[in-house]
Amino acid sequence: MISYADFHHQRAQRRRAMELGIHASLGIPKNINVFLDNGAFFFSARGETVPVKEYEEFVENAHPCWKPVPRDFIPTPSMSFAEQRLCLNRTMRVNRSFQHDGYVPVAHISRVLDEYVVRIKAHSQLAAKPHIALGAIVPNLLRASKAMPYRHILDGLKKFRRDFADKKVHVFGIGGTATVHLAMLIGIDSVDSSGWRNRAARGIIQLPGSGERVITALGSWRGRQLSREEMRTLRACLCPACQFEGVRGLKASGTRGFCNRATHNLWTLLEEVKWVEKHLTAGTYREAYKEHLDNTIYRPLIEYLVNALPERENADGRT
Predict the structure, then answer these.
(1) In terms of Cα–Cα distance, which of 64, 71, 50 is closest to 20?
(2) Averaged pLDDT in 10-residue chunks for the chain of 319 residues
(3) Which of 10, 106, 230, 260 is at 20 to 30 A from 74, Cα to Cα?
(4) Can you give the residue ranges of every domain in the chain?
């Protein structure tokens, strides 16, 4: 997943992607799908106008494999019901305006999520789309003011998955070693997050089944330190960064340290996905996760979803 906002603010990179295509411009093999984020959160957080026409021009020439509508209006948990409905109305206007050319419609985790479902299903072109995206989960998971209870979020995701059982569902903002368990148990098809990279910039690494730990103190960021057992696990890590420079490389300063931590975090996240896939496929997840997951605030939520595993397996991977 790559954000259009990065290209918009790096004009030379934008021109290059439009001239060569997004794969060639970034050196990405053609067999790897490139998803494009519209940058709506980035632009709105900075009070900038979303450049709809420039976004259209970019996707027409850069040819990403997947693209959402040019903009969406993201509700925050602290908004009133009326304000969240206003975001719904504005986003649906964009969804309807971009029902063509493979644009993916967007909905949001909010108190009006069911209304999104009704309106999308009532629109023949949108209802026929093979993909749909769901945003606004991050402020709720991070417990922003008036955030929805965790179980309400999960129930909303499960229902959304059932309501659009015929579509590939992408959820913006999921990408931790614990939250990928939640997404995969629900049957979400794809997720994205820049969290692994942001954590690396803050001196934080991810560990399989344990979450994030501080490996080097940078600025004012705080977090849990590695235990002795976790340090032994880290020293045995098989990721490219740890194999090349070990723990010393993860603790390094500057670009070198950031690149090592980012490589480690992404590798750990992808290995976690493989672990979940393996045990879900083998039917062993129900017992295996109890030993694998440690000290995560999301464990009770994973236990909640595990109770639906028989139903999910009988439904061929859909809750």
Answers:
(1) 64
(2) 92 96 96 94 86 95 97 93 97 97 96 96 97 89 77 91 96 87 94 88 91 87 86 94 96 96 96 95 93 82 84 44
(3) 10
(4) 1-67, 198-314
Q: Are the C-beta atoms of residues 302 and 182 closer than 8 Å to each other?
A: yes
> pTM score > 0.85 for this model?
yes
Q: What's the pLDDT tens digit per position in 103-137?
A: 999 999 999 999 999 999 999 999 999 999 999 88
